[in-house]
């Protein structure tokens, strides 16, 4: 019974999310007629770079900013509340709608510390491309240790909450 409840709860949640996406789409229409600006296939691209801490994500993002400027991509930083990578259902709906319908920001490269989001769950046909960089777990832990102990060169004056003793 509990498993059936969870399944039905999940189905209800998805149905509500799809309904909210449709409502948002209707608000963006004039007299119920959708005014789409059609984009070429190559311009209708969205890349989401889900940054994993201590995997050279800052270096990779800096390269992306340089390349995107040269290749006429729009770069957007995704800043989640309190750096929580998991979004509420309402925020997921808003995010999916913004990413898929913001034609002025396409082609786009979004980056930030966010969890994977299944766009198909919200009825989206043209899903974004997800990319990621991974690192050997031990090397990542060593990097994190030195990061907490000494900070970084990128923002040397920043005092971090978890920053350790330098001795």
TrEMBL record:
The answer on whether this UniProt entry bears the keyword Zinc-finger reads no
How this chain sits in the membrane, per its record, is: Single-pass type II membrane protein
- Where does the record say this protein resides? Golgi apparatus membrane
Q: What is its main location?
A: Golgi
Q: Which UniProt keywords apply?
A: Disulfide bond, Glycoprotein, Golgi apparatus, Membrane, Signal-anchor, Transferase, Transmembrane, Transmembrane helix
Q: Does the keyword Membrane apply?
A: yes
The record, for Gene3D superfamilies, names:
P-loop containing nucleotide triphosphate hydrolases (3.40.50.300)
List the GO cellular component terms. Answer: Golgi membrane
Q: Which Pfam family, giving just one, matches this sequence?
A: Sulfotransfer_2
Q: Which SUPFAM superfamilies match?
A: P-loop containing nucleoside triphosphate hydrolases
- GO molecular-function term, one example from the UniProt record: heparan sulfate 2-sulfotransferase activity
Which InterPro entries does the record match to this protein?
Heparan_SO4_2-O-STrfase (IPR007734), P-loop_NTPase (IPR027417), Sulfotransferase (IPR005331)
Give the matching PANTHER family.
Answer: HEPARAN SULFATE 2-O-SULFOTRANSFERASE (PTHR12129), HEPARAN SULFATE 2-O-SULFOTRANSFERASE 1 (PTHR12129:SF17)
Of which family is this protein a member?
Answer: Belongs to the sulfotransferase 3 family.
| Name this polypeptide is given | Heparan sulfate 2-O-sulfotransferase 1
State which gene encodes it. Answer: Hs2st1
